Amino acid sequence: MSTSNFELFWITAALLLLSYSIYDSHRSAKLSRHLLFFICGGSLFWQEFYADWGVFLIWNTDFHMMPWGKTLWTIENKPWFNIAAYPVFMWAAFTCISAFLSRVKCADRPLQLLIVCAMVAGPTLYGFNVVTEYLAVAKAGLWTYTDTIGPALRTEAGTMPLLYPGIPFAMFAVLLAFLQHYRNAKGQLHIEEVFSKKNLNDRPIAKIFFWILVWNSCYWLALCTPLILIRNFS
């Protein structure tokens, strides 16, 4: 797949998903999970370039690049398409994760829930990432890694690490999924109960901003922080 077709795929998918998510929220007269996941997932795009720096990722220069150049702990070339790719990718992964976890009857038992999240959320996001990178890196050469830690798949198209940063990426899913599903006896999410005096379900704008902060905090803590630290001190 060419860079232009790859960009077109994500932009088209993002527009279609956004349209559906808005329709779903309008139909149900409330902020839908689809729209919340789309917005929160999309809000992570800027952290991609910090994670890229930590793992020596280099993008194909045929992509359309942002004017945001090299800054501390970021790579120089930053493709625009990530703004469209992130909401679609994260929506797909966490919709699957939520579908699995919604069947689990331990939302009020933190230790059991954490174990289930480690068994479900981590492998699910890891699997999504492996499939995406195999097609985009090992097959299409849309980006590659100039240095790797641990085992890697090396092809003529590019180099694809298999465990790192895959494991920290999976830890992000475990942490976020736990916060998304840990509830009190009344069924209210613990994290919303702790940080908000009012029910966020009645305040959709506040709920969006609250969860944007949660998603970004989890991503930075679980993924970007260890990648940056390991590169700086290795």
UniProtKB/TrEMBL annotation:
Keywords: Membrane, Transmembrane, Transmembrane helix. The chain crosses the membrane at residues 6-23, 35-59, 79-101, 113-137, 162-179, 208-230. This is Spirocyclase AveC family protein. It comes from the Bacteria. The keyword Ligase does not apply.
